Every structure is written in C-alpha cells, then in structure tokens.
Amino acid sequence: MTMHGNHLRPQVAHGVAFVLFTMLPVMRAAAEDAPAVDTSKWVCKFCTFEETGFSFTPNLGVGYVTDDSAKFGEYTGMNEQGAYLIADAAGRYRGADGLWLDLSAVDLGLDSRFFGVEGGRQGKYEFHLNYKQLPHNISDTANSPFLGIGTTSLTLPSSWVPASTTGAMTALDASLRGTDFNTERRMVDLGGALTLVKHWAFAVNVRHEEKTGTRGTGGSFIFNDSRLPMPVDYQTDQFDASAAYNAERLQARFAYYGSIFNNDDAALIWENPYLPLANGATTGQLALAPSNQFHQLVFSAGYKLAERAQVTGDIALGRMTQNESFLPYTINSSLPTQPLPASSLDGQVDTLTGNLRFTTTPVDKLRINASLTYNERNNRTPQAEYDWITTDTAVAAPRTNLPYSFKHTVASIDGAYPLTTSIRLYAGCTIDEFERDLQEVEYTNEGGCWGKAGFQAKDGASFTIKWAHSLREGSDYLPPPDTPPQNPLMRIYSMADRSRDELNLRIDATPGERFNFGLDASVTWDAYYNSAIGLLDGNSLSLAADCSWMLSEKFSATCYASHEQIKSRQANAELLAPSPLWTSENTDTIDTAGAGFKYRVHEKLDLGIDYTFVRSSGEILIESATVGFPDLETRLNSARLYIDYATKKKLSLRLSYWYEDYRSDDWALDGVTPSTISNVLAFGQGTPSYYINVVALSGRYEF
Amino acid sequence: MQSRKLLRIACASLVLACGSLASRAEEPGYTKRGADTCLKCHDESSKFPVLSIFKTRHAQPADSRTPFAKLQCESCHGPGAAHAEEVPEGQPQAPIIKFGAGSRVPIAQQNQVCLGCHEDQARISWKSSPHGGNDVACASCHRIHAEHDAVLATAAQPEVCYACHKTQRAEFDKPSVHPVRFAQMQCSSCHEVHGAMSAKLLIKPTLNETCYTCHAEKRGPVLWEHAPVAENCANCHTPHGSINTALLVKRPPLLCQSCHSQAGHPSVARTGAGLPGGNPSGFLLAGSCVNCHSQIHGSNDPSGVKLMR
C-alpha cells in the first residue's frame, strides 16, 4: 500500500478515518488517565521527609495537690492530697517503605493513665493496642454502718440495735465508717486494618473493659429505706469487624458488632437496720444488673447515581438477649410464694434500624435531600404472671411483665438554594411517627417544617437565622391494663400532644484578619397544650459567644461567655380526681465565662493563662407551698498558669500552677446526716466544695 | 476524490487527537519541579510555612494513595505553574486552590479535593450529612499540614468542635457532665462527624445503642422494664451536661412526677417543708424517689415490678 496519488484504496481510507474517529474518545481518555504531567524533574530535593529512625520524647516531673476532693479529681484521679508523678511520653519510629510505629503515654502517674502503640506499613496494614484507665470519683464524704462494703452481702455490726426510725438507732453513730464511692474502668483495645487489596479495606477491633468499684444504691422495706453501698464488678467485651468496598461510584461496608456484658454479682443482700414492719423481714435482696449480650449486623452503602445524585442507606439488624437465672421472689422464708413461671427470663429484643437517603442537585445549585429512617424495637420476651413479694415484707397481687416494643419512622425532605452569591436559603419538612405497644399512647405523629437563611458578607462575616415549628399529636390516652391507675388527666410528656417552636441566630465575624467573633442564640418553646397534669410547657434560652484575637506573632487571646436558662412548668394532683391541683415551676440558669492568653516573652520563654468561671442555679417554685426551696447553687473558679522554657534545643521545662475553687449548695444533701430522715438511713455526704491548688514542674527531652 | 477527502478527514482527526494529547500534557499548568518549586518560597520563614506536612501521613511516597506519591503539593492545590510565577512587588500571586478560612474556592470544590481520596466507607453519607449539607469545609476542622492535627487528639478535639458548637462548650462546663472537659472523652466518642446516618451523627444506629457501648449494664432486656428507659435515654438524661446529678434533665422528685400521677406518694407535692429543719422527707432528700426505686433503669428481680428490688 502506498500513500501516493490515487493508489489509496477508498475502503482503506474509510477504515483509517473510522478508526481515528473512534479512537478520539479513547485517546482523550488516555490523555486523562496517563500521567499527563511531566514529573521527571520532580525530585523533591527540598522535601524534608522523615528519616528512618526512632525518636522518643518523655515528659517527667512531679506535681502536688493541696487537698482531698473527689469532685476535683472526679475523672482525672487527682482526688487526693499529695504529690503525684507526671509521666508522659511520645515515641516515633519511621522505617523504609512506609513502615511506622507510634507510642503514646499520657498521665501514667494518675489513675486516668493511657498507653497506646500503633503502627503498620502505611497503605498496607495497621494495628493498634491501647490501654486506658478512667476513674470516676463520686464521693469521699459518705458514711455507712454496713460491713462488707464492696461485697454482695452487707451486714450490720454485732452491736447494732434495730429501731423503727433512724433517730432511734442507738448504735448508729458509733457504727458509721467513711465510705468512698468510686468506680474505675480499665480498657484494652486491640485492632488492626488491612488495605492490601485495591478498593477493599478490612478492619477488626476487640475491646475488653472492666469496671470495678463501689457506688450507692437503695433498698427498702416498705417505706423504711437504707442507702446501700453497691459493688460494681462488670466486664464488657466488644467486637467490631468490617469489610468495606470503596470505588468512585460505590462505597459499601458490611460490619458486625458484638457486645457481651458480664456481671458475676447477681444480687445484693443487706441486713435490715430497722425493726421489721411485718413478717420478720430482717434481710433484703435486690437484683443487680444481669449479664446480657447484643449482636448486630450492619450494611451501609452509598452509590453515585449521576454526577449530582447520590443514594445512601444502611440497615442494622440486632438482637439483645438476657437469660440470667432468676432470684427467688424473696429471701424471707416466712412468706409463701408460688414457683416462678420460669427459671430465667429468656429475654430477647430484636432491633431493626434502617436509613435511606437521596441527595441530588436537579437544577443548577439547588440541592435536595430526602431521607427515610426506620427504627424498630421488637421485644420478644415472653410474658408471664409473677408473684409479687413487695420489699421482702408482704405478699402483693401478682403482676404480668410488659415487654415494650415500638416502631419509629421519620421521613424528611430538605433543600438548599443560593439565592445570590451572598444569600443562601434552606428549608425542610419532617414527619415523625411513633407506634408503641403496652403504653399509654399507641400512636403519635409529629410534623414540622423549618427554614433557614444564611447571609455571607464579602469580608467573611456571616449571619444565619433559622426557625422551626413542629406539632405532635397522638391517639387516645389509654393506660395499659394491669398497671396502677393514674390520674386521667396525666399526659406523659414523651407521648403528649406538643407544639414546638425553635429560633436560632448565629453571627460569625472576622473584622480584620486577626480577630474572630462568634455568637449563637437559640430559643425553644414547647407547649404541651392538651396536658392538664404532667409537663405543661418548657422553654429555653441559650446565648453563647466566643472570640479569638491574634494581636501579634507573640500574643494571642481567646474568650467565651454563655448564658442559658431552662424553664418548665408541670402540674400534678394528689388524688386521682383532677383537683386539688398543684403546679411547679423549675428554672435552671447557667452562666459561664472564660479567657485565655498566650504570650511569647522571647524565643525560649512562653507564658499562658486560662481562666474559667461557671455559675449555675436551680430554682424550684411550688405554687401552693408555704415553705419554698432554697436555690440549688454551684460556682466554679478555675485558673491555670503555665510557663514553658526551652533550655536547649531538645529540652524544655514547664512550670504550671492551677487554682480551682468550687462551691455548691444542694438542699437534697445539705444537712442530711444518716439519721436526719426518719425512714431513710442516708449516707450523710454533703455537697462537694473545695479550694485546691496544684503546682507542677516537668521537663520534656527529645531523644 | 472521495479517497482524498477521506484521507484529509483522517489526517485532521489524527491532528485533533494528537493535539488533544499534547494540550492535556501541557495543561493545566503544573510546575516544572513539583514540590521543589513550592518549597522555594513556602519554607518555615514564609507566611504560609508547609514543611510540617512531611511529618504527616500525607507525605509518604511509599503509600501510593498519598499526595506525595502522586503530584506532590499539586495533588491537592492543583496546577501551580501560574502561582509560582514571579510577579511585580506588591502584586498578588496568581491564585491556587487554597483551603480553609479566607479561601475563595467554593467549599464544595475544596471538599471534593479531599473526597477524591477520602470518599470511603467512613464518609459514605458525608454529602447528605448535616456537616456536608451545610457546606462545612474539611479544612474547617482539619489542619492538613500540622504534624499533630488537633481534631484527632482527645484533649484538643472539643475546642475544634466548639468553634461552631458554642453552646456545647457551656454544657460541658456544668456540674454533672460526661468527662469531656477532663480530656477523658471527646466529641467523637459518641458522634461520627463524617456522616453517620443516625440522628445527631451518633456512632451507633440509635441513641440508646450509643449509650450502651459504655453503659451495657442498662441494656437488658430485663423482666420489669421502665418504658422511657428502653425507648430513649434522653427522656430523663441530657447527654452533655446538667446542673442535676447523673445528667438528669430535672431534679427528682419533679422529674418523676412529670409522668407519675398515681394516687399516694407519687403525686404529692413536695415542698421546702420536707427539708432538714422541717419534717425531713425521704421522698425529697438524699436520692429522692430512687432512695426506694433504686432499680430505675429496670429490674430483673421477680419481685421488682416497682423497681425496688
């Protein structure tokens, strides 16, 4: 074949033309897929990639806490006066081909210590192993006469003299012993992830948690009650495993979650400190949390239907089970009981949760979301009639258990549209349906809509206003059979007819590059307009503002303040008849303020201060009362000062001082000694108050 | 003649096709030396220093997914040749894809750069989520160039979230809280901020299932359920903070009397007359209702119908 003159055959020319035409899109695609950029000179000689090797930066020192306070060290472990060790560390290894290992240690000298190691080969596999302790110091001022605290059997001293009232318990004062209430969680996490196969990711995590300690509970014989130290000895194992597929248009994940809770303590038994009211009830027993399990399969996926349309969804199938052996009706052998209908509950709850969302931009810039959510709790626990021995003291009428189930469906649609370059409008509507069985209201329907407008100024300032309104209505209010009669005018607030309005304003401004200011204001009005007894209405006001100011390269400051008020009114009646009605008004008010400064005195010396102020009050007004309540009060002042000094390139020192004082008044605890209430043997712990200073010095060195 | 005509068409097509390839190679204006071009200006003394990125996972050439295994800085910031050109003093550089505050690049476009690699199983519903749907930029929360991204650290993460969620900061300052301000929990302990499909972006499909991850002892099922507990923990508890013990939305006995109107002690008004100094009442003081009804979350005791055993 030649290309000269008329020697080219027409069919060949046709063929070449055809091939080239058909190749056009292929070649264009090749141009897009191929490395179109000439990177042959991209040697990255200025790139300061981490070199292979190990670095280790410990931070060691000592701190001193000037006083004991469970409240001050509630979650940190700094609850006792004295010195404590400051021990933190960070380690880092970087090897060839993406091999990495990070070590982290935080607060090793405290009960809130953490230690973790994670590593892997980036882009191939990863693993982690973490250990974490979390204390919860609840009270260090409680007292109890019981012996055997921390066990499931509480006894009284041999010298104990039972009486009809706490004031008449003559051996009480001599028997009281200080009892700290606290729990501690110890958690180990082990997990890993694989990304060896393109588009696929696999992950697994196992967590073992132990929670031990003592906390308060209560046990009574009819109306004679004792506050009881309850042992906590829980183990929970949680398992997560997932496989995910990620491609440009489709992302999907299939996962399993399992949670196995174990409590070896089936019951708490205690000796009755009162004279038995009847039937020789000298010992009581109550059930502790039963061991149980939950297993769940979750599938979630998202698919890009088109460039501007995506559908996402998930479905979760779960099952909760519990089948611990029942305790006997009573340990009071003088009371006659029938055999239990079963030796254990065989409790089973099946859960089904699903979401489906569709997001699209049908016309330019108009974005629409539509979603449907379904949540079902199907309680398959068998029903049976159980004898009822009330408080190990008397035989009462048998009762049938009520395994609650519900179905909850929410459908919503919302959209967003930029009216101009600086104004964006949003709006949406939601329908929320709830079906319950064995409860007062079988069906509720709540519909609502909202609108929002956002204004964006050219200097970056923005203003947003949002308003929402919803209305909830339900079917007839019919208390289920086999339950104690309640006032016919009662409407339980979670099921009551309700009108809700919400207004939110938000301002963010950056007047100048160095100063930011933000304000958020929200108001909510709830009206339970068909409730004569129960919650009548509630409203809240929340104002929160913050600022940051970068005065110079050396000086920066932050601030924040808030005011919140939560109000509600409710009514009740002392008889089953509508009157005499009493109403109460509850007002919680919380004010906070804080400020922080950072100042670089010179290149080796940094100074920082943070201050926080919190004040809260709770006012309760019973309208018919001749004697009112004092306000519930808390007040916190907290200030932290630190000075960082870099002595050498790799060594830095930190001197810190932390001052905090906390005052609280709570009429439920103030002045309530173990014998203040004639029929409640209380712990007698007061409200927490403290004034504490913490001084700490530590040094950080980079090896 | 027809053959010549076809030949001309074929040649024109070839030129078009080759021209397409050539223009793709030259456009859209990448730098000649990649990151080295950028780093000549963006060293530690510049207004926008970037070298700390080399201590992050994005700067790992051995991982084929990362920017530094692809087009280096320009993987995310786009072609930078024009930006790198010298301009007369006082004149601005040509724009480049910039992220975060002050960027004039539409947030959707900024985020699409990130989603180009990170639209995976953790961000399946990002675009329809409250964050994605309200045009929150990835760079609003993440500091890509920082060695330690604050939002990934337990102690520092809440401050990042408070920048927008201002009322939540105040809630965690209240007397009864989950231990966020103690740096023992973080917002992401409960919230999957990249777009879980659950309400409030919770890490589990429902609120109760989220709570049970730490409070499994309250999960049951038990023989005698307390209906509002099984349905929604938030009927009685507010998750961030409260002035009442145990994060209760209201102080007992009023909280309980919001729902219980049975004849006898549940519906009796409790007043200040029941405080110490008056006639101290066990219905009001110490644990109030839970002095006796201590199994308030449900009981598995056969005689626990009143949640007293």
What is the rounded distance between the termini of chain B? 103 Å
In terms of structural class, how would the helical and strand content of chain A be classed? mainly beta
Distance between the termini of chain A: 75 Å
Shape of chain A: globular
Uncertain segments of chain B are: 9-26
**Strand segment tally of chain B:** 2
Q: Kindly state the percentage of residues in helix of chain A.
A: under 10%
Instruction: Output the radius of gyration of chain A.
Output: 33 Å
User: Quaternary state, please?
Assistant: heterodimer
Describe the structure.
The complex is a heterodimer of chains A (703) and B (309). Chain A is mainly β and 703 residues long. Chain A has helices at 10-33, 172-175, and strands at 53-65, 82-94, 99-106, 114-121, 125-144, 153-154, 177-194, 200-221, 224-246, 250-263, 267-271, 283-287, 292-306, 309-322, 347-360, 367-379, 385-390, 394-400, 405-418, 423-437, 443-456, 462-474, 490-491, 498-509, 515-527, 533-550, 555-573, 581-602, 605-622, 632-646, 651-665, 680-681, 690-701. The longest helix of chain A has 24 residues, at 10-33. Chain B is mainly α. A two-stranded antiparallel sheet of chain B has the order 1-2. The longest helix of chain B has 25 residues, at 2-26. Chains A and B meet through α1, β8, β9, β10 and β12 of A and α1, α2, α9 and α11 of B.
